[in-house]
Amino acid sequence: MLDLKFIRENPEKVKEGIIAKGEIGDVDRILELDAARREIIQNVERLKKQRNENSQKVARYKKEGKDVSEIIEYTRRISEEIKELDDRLKRIEEELDKETSRIPNLPHASTPRGADASQNVEVKRWGEIPQFDFKPMNHLELGERLDILDFKRGGKISGSGFPVYKGDGARLERALINFMLDLHIDKHGYTEIFPPFLVNRESMFGTGQLPKLEEDMYHAEKDDLFLIPTAEVPVTNLHRNEIIEVDELPVKYVAYSACFRREAGSYGKETRGFLRVHQFNKVEMVNFVRPEESYDFHEKLLREACEILELLEIPYRVLLLCSGDLSFAAAKCYDIETWSPAEDKWLEASSVSNFEDFQARRANIRFRPEKGAKPQYVHTLNGSGLATSRLMVSLLETYQTDEGTVIVPGVLRKYMNGKDVIRRKYHNE
To answer: Which of 71, 166, 318, 322 is most buried, with most CB under 10 Å away?
Structure first.
């Protein structure tokens, strides 16, 4: 959420940011409500002062034996007017909060302006695109041949977009998750969190999913709880309504979670298998940092995510998102994409975002720069480190052989009990 004072003092900048993001927000209505709110507050303060003065007069007049009925009646009318103004103030503040919550975070100055994903900027590419002397199979064909993925039975159980991992497929998925967690914990200095997968409405609001994205979320209406779209939500909200000690910063958390997203869309060739799912697994990194350090940590967070792919030896590229492709809450974001040989295209495997103090304001997460100083809002950042669904596509397709087997990347073998090749368990084709 943007600071109301900032909106008041920079209305044109806020309007430009809304347009640059392709979002909708009524800055003029916010300014109108803000002016009305401040006027009411001033009037209430003036009336309360009059009421206090009258109360003192009543006490003095009574001592002097004077008639106080007229003053008491006048004071009663002042109290009624104050109540009416307080009721009106409450309604205005509710509408003001509603309108302000619809204003997106503004894109950082280093975020390129653009309308959509076609105007994102490639800033890095790593690894060689694999070349095959045979026609590569896609991840669905490999999964079926090796009997390690079962989308058909997942559809039977839950519907399309809910995968079933089987045998070495389940083990490979678990290996990926454990490898990523261990690297971030042991090398990058993260503290592991295993969060709830259901969160309340306040948590979803705090990270910026609500109110805008409510229709994309799985909602348990009876309990008013939401299945998490990412571990970013519960992990960021660990410190909601808290003041973090300055000597604790930076706080770096890493968490595995299943992620759930409704995401309506077509389910033809371009969205088959893992290319679009409603449930997937992800390792998420969340940072709470001092404001002056947040963009240094943003670059560091990007390197930490990229290191996963370099150790797996999977080609990737990094895109700097333009303003029109940024999420509602992000000020700047990098996407990391991995190469799919069978799809012959790049697939998003991670987003690394800096939210500045946008989430911290919504969730009221602060720190005190020094003893006795006024608390300030921290900056929050997060990055997928990584999401496994599309990473699994690239891994299976990149490491396939002409025999229809899949070589296990070296860094994962200790998590696979030394297994170096995934083969079909029963050779009865």
So the answer is: 322
